[in-house]
Amino acid sequence: MDLDALRFGVFSQLGTAAGDWEAMAKKLWDLESDARGDLGGKAAKANWEGVNATVTKEFIGKTAKEFTDAATQATSIANILKDTHGELVGYKTQLNEAIDQGLSRNLTVVETGNGGFTVTMNIHPDRAAKGHEVPEHTEADVTALRDQVQKILEQATESDSTAAQALTMLVGQTPYGFSDAAHYNRDRAAQAMKDAERIADLLKKKGDDLTPEEFDRLNKDLAAYKDDRLFQERLATTLGPRGVLDFWADLSDPSDGGGLQRARLKDLGDFQQNLSFVLAGATQSDSPAMRTWENDMVKLGEERVQTRGTQVYGYQLMSNLMRTGDWDNRFLNDYGNALVATEKKMKLPSHYWNSGVPAMPKMNFTGEDFGRDPMTGFMTALAASPNAATEFFNRTEPEDNAKYVLGDRDTFDDTPLDGKDGNAAKNATGAALAAAATGMNPNDPTAPQVDLTPEHRKVLDRSLEYLSARGDDFPAEMRDDMAKVLSRHSDVVHQSASSLSDNSQDPRQLDRAQLLEVTKQVSRDQDAYGMINEAMNQEILKDIHSDHPTDAKETLQRGGATIGFLEEARYQALKTDKEDPSWQAKWLYHGFGGAANFIPVVGDAAQRGVDALAYQWQLDEQARIEKGIQEQNGSTFQFRENQLRALSEEWAKANPGHGNNAYTLENEINLAALNGNNRAHGLAGDQ
User: Fold this and answer.
1) pLDDT number for residue 175
2) What share of the chain is helix, strand, coil (3-state, %, to 5)?
C-alpha cells in the first residue's frame, strides 16, 4: 500500500460495507432458521409420493441448505471486512503518529512515486526563521523512522491484499449459489493461506527428505486444517496435481535409503488420511483453478511417475490419497470413468498395475493392502459419497461401469502377505455398490436412511443382473454388501419373493431368478444371511400391519411365500457349500452389528412383534445348525415352524374378526411357504 493511500485514506465506506454485511448476515441467519426448521422440517416429515418424492422434496432440501450456505458466506465476508477496516484504520493512525514524531525531530516522510517514499530533513537549519531553533536528529533517527514507516506500510499491504485474496477465494469457490466455507476472519484467512503456501513449498522442495520433526509438524498442520476450505484450495493449487503425485511417490518409495519411513512408519497412515482430507475438501471448490486441477489430475492418471527405484502410475498414487474425506461428486465420476476406460484399454489390469520393475512395495499405509490396485482407493472414496456412487454405477457411457466392476474386471491379490483377508478391491467395490443402491455410506454405522429413488432401484436391478450371472463365482467380499442392499430394498424384495408369477406390469417386481441367485450367494455368509432374514421378518410384519389389500389374507400368504423363497435360497447355499454345511457359531440377535441401520424401521404397531419373531426365527435356525444340511421337501417345513406360527399369530392380532382359528391360520401360512419354496425351486432350475 502506498504512503499517501494509507495516510490520507478514507475508510468509512469500508466500515459501512462491513456493517451492511453484518446486518445481511443476521437477516440470513434468521431466514436460515426458518428454512431449516420450518421448510426443511416439514419437508422431512411429509409423506411424499410419486415425482414429488424424488424431485420436490430434494429441491426443498437443497434450497434450505442454500440459506445455511448464504448465511455462512455472508458472516465470513462481514468478519473479513470488519477486521480489515479495523486494521487499516489502526495502521493509518500508527502512520500519522510516526510522521508526527518525525516532525518533532525535524524529519518528514515524502512519497516518491511508484510506491516509494523517502525520509528527509523538514527544515534546513540555515533556512530556519530568525530566532527559531530547528530540532536536531541523527542518522539513526532517520533510519528508525524509515523502518517504522516501511513496517507499517507492509502490514497494511498484507492486511489489504490477504483480505482481497480471501474474499476472492470465498466467492470463487462456487460460481452459482453460496459457499459453505465457514466463518472466517481476516487473520484466520491470512494465516490459512500463508500456511498452505509454506507447506506446499516444503513438500515440493524436500519430499521424503523431511526431517522427522518437520514431518511431525506437517502432520499436525494438515490435521488442524482438514476442515478449512481456504487452506485446502490454496495448498492443492499451489502444490499442483503433479506436485501431489511426485510427493506421494517420493514418500512411498523406500529405495533411496532415506530415514523418514523408518523413523515415522507408524505415523504414515495418519499422515495419508490427513492429506486425503485436505485434498478432498479442496475438490469441493468450483473455482476455475480447482476445476483445472481436477481435470489435470484425471489426465495424469495414465502417466508414469518416476521415483528413484521404480515407476508407478498416477492412478495408483492418487487413489491412495482418496481413501478418506468427502470428494466432489463430479471429480469422482470423471476420475472413475477415466479409470475404467484405461483398465478396459489395457485388458489385464492385474499385470498393468504390477508392471514396475521392481514393484513399489507400498503406496497405502492405512490398511493391509499395498495400494497397487487403484480401484481400491477410488471405490473407498465412492462409498463415502453415495450420490456419486449412484451416478457411477448407472453410467453406461463411455463404458458400462457396473458391468465392468461387478462382472468383467480382472482383480489381483494386493495383500500377498495375508491369505485370509479377502480381496481389498472387491471389498471396496461392494461398499461402493451398497452406497450406490441405498444412498447411505455403508462404513458409517450412524448413516441415516434416505428415501429410495428410481436411480437407487436402477442400481439394484443392474447389480442383480451382473452379480447373478457370476453364479458361485459371486465375490465372497460382496455378500454382506448385497445383504445391506436387499435389506434396504426390503419392500420390492418381499413383493418379488412372494409373487406368484412374473408380472411386467408390476413396478415393484424384480427379476425373480436373479433375486434368487443373489439371495443364495448372500446366504453363504452367516451374518449376511442373518441380516436379510431380519429385514424380511420386519418387512412381512410391516406388510401385515400397514398394507390393506382387498383380501387381508394376501399379507399372510405373501409372508409365507417369502419365507419359502428364502428357504430355497438357503438350501441352495447349503448344497453349494456341502463340504462345510453348517455354521458352528450360535445365533445372536443383531449379530451383524452396525449394518442394522440398513433395515427399514417398521411402524409402532408392528414393532411389538419384531423381537418375538426374531427369537422364534433363531430357534428355527439353531435347529438347522444342529441337524445340518437337509432339503425342505414341504412335508413338515420343520425348520421354520416357530417363525411361521409367530407370523400367523401376529396376523391374527392385526386382523381382529377374521373368522379363522389358530390352526387354520398356521396351516395356511405353512402352505404358502411350501408353495413359495416350490416356486423358488423352479426358478433355480437344475442345480
Assistant:
1) 61
2) 70, 5, 30
How do residues 579-610 score in pLDDT, each as one tens digit? 664 554 444 444 455 567 888 877 776 777 78
Q: For residue 569, with 0-12 CB atoms within 10 Å meaning exposed, 13-18 middle and 19 or more buried, which class applies?
A: buried
Q: In degrees rounded to 5, what are phi and psi of residue 564?
A: -65, -40
Neighbours of 417 (CB within 10 A): 8
Question: E strand or H helix at 232, and its extent?
Answer: helix 229-252
Distance of CA 644 to the CA centre of its chain: 41
Cell (9 digits) for 21: 454485511
Alpha-carbon distance values, 219 to 101, 224, 277, 379 (Å): 47, 9, 12, 25
Closest CA to 587 of 532, 644, 527, 628: 527
Q: Which residues contact 13 (CB under 8 A, 6 or more apart)?
A: none
How far apart, in Å, do the first and last CA atoms of the chain sit?
Answer: 83
- Among 358, 241, 262, residue whose Cα is nearest residue 311: 358
* pLDDT, tens digit, 9 for 90 and up, residues 386-441: 999 999 999 999 999 999 999 999 888 898 776 666 799 999 999 999 999 999 99
Sorted by sequence, the CB contacts under 8 Å of residue 174 that are 6+ apart come out as 285, 286
Amino acid at 444: D
Helix (H, G, I), strand (E, B) or coil at 236: helix
CA-CA distance, 406 to 475, in Å (whole number)? 9
Query: Which amino acid is it at 217?
Result: R
Nearest partner of 427 among 446, 444, 414, judged by Cα: 414
Task: List pLDDT tens digits, range 57-116.
Answer: 555 556 666 777 777 778 888 888 888 888 899 999 999 999 998 988 888 898 888 878
Amino acid at 487: S
Helix (H) or strand (E) run with residue 336 in it: helix 329-346
Global pTM value? 0.81
Residue 351 backbone zone (phi > 0: left; psi -120 to 50: alpha; other: beta) = alpha
Say which residue the cell 461392494 belongs to: 430
> What is the DSSP track for 69-109?
HHHHHHHHHHHHHHHHHHHHHHHHHHHHHHHHHHHTTTEEE
Spatial distance between the Cα atoms of 564 and 9, rounded to a whole number of angstroms = 84
Question: b vs e for 585-615, b when ≥16 Cβ sit within 10 Å of the residue's Cβ?
Answer: eebeeebbeebebbbbebeeebeebbeebbe
Query: Which residue is associated with the grid cell 451492511?
Result: 20
Rounded Cα–Cα distance for residues 594 and 434 (Å): 14
**Cα dist. 591→456, 530, 536 in Å?**
27, 8, 16
Residue 140's Cβ-count burial label (10 Å; 0-12, 13-18, 19+) is exposed
CA 640 and chain centroid, separation: 41
> What 8-state DSSP symbol labels residue 527?
H
β-pair partners for 120: 108
